[in-house]
Design brief:
With 714 residues, this protein is of the alpha+beta class. It is built from 27 helices and 23 strands. β8, α6 (186-194) and β9 (199-203) form a beta-alpha-beta unit.
Length: 714
């Protein structure tokens, strides 16, 4: 985009935006939010009619197990969305505790009501005030904490480690080392008792292990302490930190409840004992399926982080392969652990070495691959899916009717692709030119490059093409090279039981109702399209059928109502029953889970749907630095609404690494967001793969439409 145009556009956006900064919402009595009029002047708010408030007597004791059972729900607390788990690659994340507590609740016929807070200290405050029954999270059991709280049987036994920036480090435990530790953390107690001569620098802010690692990597902090398990999680996607010392004393991590709440604690410990849920960083193992179930070990599924297989979207774990494997694990009552690999070769190596149990990654069963599979002492299941091998072209490119039309055309493809042999044959028999793509460039990126006319042609499977076609209407498939290409699971040859169970699963569910629902969800669910002519606008017209509702709900949050209408059009084309394959629903395309946490019960109701969308956008705005210019707050908020806060934070971090500004969206963070589609970048991102073009286009489209709406209404 022309730089002058960008400057003018941003200036207009800044001038015309009518929202305040990202301060926490105060009560009306203390500091009412100010309504900013469209000419920039402040107007006094009219007093709002106060609704009758039901007075709830504050508890002075913890709820016993009998009281919890009688209420029908467990009150639990977890960290706010910005600290939600990263993309699980292996082992535990916050999702583990959520699932485990839900399993405990299910065993007692209970529901879980989640309370959210922004930091660990507030978790303990809620527990101490008897507002929640439990903190289901890895918490270090310390002497100080035992004076105030009771803990379950340990869920993990670990050691604490000192971490530093990658590279040469001369750390000596006998030196007067300066260690930076977050306020209120258990690490302060550990360091003070084991190494009293170390100098402890207290970090006043409540920060996550990710944020601590960032400060280490950038040189702001030299040393800090984290759990060994947390370090293993961080090392799955970053290589800029390292362990330089392990504290000798082992620690136990468990869930916390109120002191002397013996009946509830007993039930929790019974559950933990029966289910053997204590976690360990697993060694390599090659046992078969019956022994795995007998020992209550997790089923480790090796896959790729991609839109076909396994990815994170708005806090939801999704993917065709992931959903099938989750069903398989549920049927056999085993825990599912996902192990993410970077390449086909790495998948084979992980499985052969006992670091996973199944490969479920959309792998085609070809003769070329059969030799490698046999050599690695692996075996394939029966076919659980089949696809077509197709040529991908741009709709405006020269017409291709048959293979002879490929003479002189250029096909870009990775050498490791299962389509490589087809490409070679096309070059030999029909004169096509073959360009080797970088191994880090995934097939979906090659399809995007065809759509953007950056490359001429590529080859892909029909499932992935179906996904990409819903986002890129410019691509066509003029030729199909192979029909019925089979996809299979891979297991070790010495795991015949697991192979038999997988084959039984495929026979029972392949092409059945569950299978078809999942497949259609990812590959054949066309987006609901509305005619643009129906909502063609002229000067002075209303913008949507819901203008009045939007005006009402933006007042509390100080958004320009026209911005929200622009976003609503982008999300649903003003269709109150719009839905997408991920389960998002309604005018603002909210996930039901998120809407429920915001107190919204019926997303079919336009007023509730709009209220939830505005509230969620306000939440995303409050997650970003209050030092950001007003218009940048909105750009980042919109990107987070679309892709998820975690992916935007990944993009900001990558922007800094690339020398771009992390506080500017256009031409800075948006560039980093696009790069997070590429393996070399998303492998090192906390939240993994993201379809970066979506949030980039989303922000631009809403911004441009918003400016048009301003001209129309003014």
């Amino acid at each position: 985009m022309n730089k002058q145009l960008v400057a003018i556009t941003l200036a207009s956006f800044f001038t015309l935006f009518i929202l305040t900064g990202c301060q926490e919402a105060p009560t009306v009595e203390e500091n009412p939010k100010t309504d900013i009029s469209q000419n920039g002047k402040q107007n006094d708010l009219k007093p709002k009619t106060q609704k009758a408030v039901k007075i709830v007597k504050q508890r002075t004791t913890a709820r016993t197990w009998s009281e919890i059972k009688a209420s029908g729900q467990i009150n639990a607390v977890k960290l706010d969305w910005k600290l939600e788990s990263a993309l699980p690659r292996a082992g535990s994340t916050g999702a583990y505790h959520t699932t485990l507590l839900q399993s405990f609740a299910d065993s007692g016929g209970l529901k879980v009501k989640w309370h959210r807070v922004s930091n660990l200290a507030d978790m303990f405050k809620k527990l101490s005030a008897f507002e929640v029954d439990i903190i289901p999270r890895h918490l270090t059991i310390t002497t100080n904490r035992l004076d105030k709280y009771s803990f379950t049987y340990p869920l993990l036994r670990d050691k604490e480690v000192v971490i530093a920036k990658s590279g040469k480090q001369d750390f000596d435990e006998d030196d007067d080392n300066n260690i930076s530790l977050p306020i209120g953390s258990a690490y302060i107690d550990s360091v003070s008792k084991q190494y009293p001569h170390w100098q402890v620098n207290i970090i006043e802010d409540h920060v996550s292990s990710q944020e601590v690692a960032d400060s280490i990597a950038t040189g702001q902090t030299k040393y800090t302490v984290i759990d060994g398990f947390a370090l293993e999680t961080l090392k799955q996607y970053r290589d800029d930190i390292q362990s330089v010392f392990t504290l000798p004393k082992a620690i136990n991590l468990a869930w916390a409840v109120n002191l002397n709440n013996d009946t509830f604690l007993h039930e929790l410990n019974e559950f933990i004992s029966v289910h053997h849920v204590m976690q360990m960083i697993e060694p390599e193992r090659t046992i078969d399926f019956k022994q795995l179930r007998k020992d209550k070990l997790p089923l480790r599924v090796i896959t790729r982080n991609s839109p076909e297989t396994y990815f994170l979207w708005r806090g939801e774990l999704l993917g065709f392969e992931y959903e099938l494997m989750r069903k398989f694990a549920d049927i056999h009552k085993v825990k599912l652990v996902i192990v993410v690999a970077d390449s086909y070769e790495e998948m084979l190596e992980l499985l052969a070495n006992g670091k996973g149990d199944i490969i479920a990654a959309g792998l085609s069963r070809t003769k070329a691959r059969a030799k490698k599979i046999t050599k690695a002492k692996l075996v394939t299941s029966i076919r659980y899916n089949r696809v077509k091998e197709q040529l991908v072209a741009h709709q405006d490119s020269a017409q291709i009717n048959e293979a002879t039309d490929l003479k002189g055309r250029t096909i870009t493809i990775r050498k490791s692709s299962s389509f490589w042999s087809t490409a070679q044959r096309l070059a030999t028999d029909f004169g096509a030119n073959i360009v080797l793509a970088n191994e880090d460039i995934a097939t979906e990126i090659l399809i995007a490059q065809v759509a953007d006319k950056e490359i001429d042609l590529t080859i892909a499977d029909s499932n992935l093409i179906a996904i990409e076609s819903s986002f890129r209407s410019q691509i066509i498939t003029p030729l199909t090279f192979k029909e019925d290409v089979p996809y299979s699971y891979l297991v070790r040859q010495n795991n015949p039981q697991l192979l038999a169970y997988l084959n039984e699963f495929v026979r029972k569910y392949y092409r059945g109702t569950f299978y078809n629902v999942v497949k259609n969800k990812y590959f054949y669910n066309e987006r609901l399209q509305k005619s643009h002519n129906k909502y063609r606008l002229v000067s002075g017209s209303i913008l949507s059928p819901y203008d009045d509702i939007v005006r009402l709900h933006v007042q509390e949050y100080n958004f320009d109502w026209r911005l929200i209408v622009s976003q609503m059009y982008q999300e649903s084309r003003f269709d109150p029953l719009a839905s997408n394959s991920t389960g998002a629903f309604g005018l603002m395309q909210m996930l039901p889970r998120t809407a429920a946490e915001l107190g919204v019960k019926d997303l079919k109701d336009p007023e509730q749907a709009i209220a939830s969308g505005v509230q969620y956008l306000d939440w995303t705005r409050d997650r970003f630095s209050k030092d950001l210019p007003v218009q940048e707050q909105i750009f980042f908020s919109l990107a987070s609404y679309n892709a998820g806060y975690g992916h935007v934070k990944d993009a900001q971090r990558l922007a800094r690494q690339l020398g771009l500004r992390s506080d500017r969206w256009f031409n800075n963070v948006e560039k980093a967001m696009l790069l997070l589609q590429r393996r070399q970048y998303y492998n090192k991102a906390r939240f993994g793969y993201v379809r970066g073009r979506e949030p980039v286009n989303y922000v631009r489209d809403i911004h441009q439409r918003y400016l048009s709406y301003i001209r129309i209404t003014d």
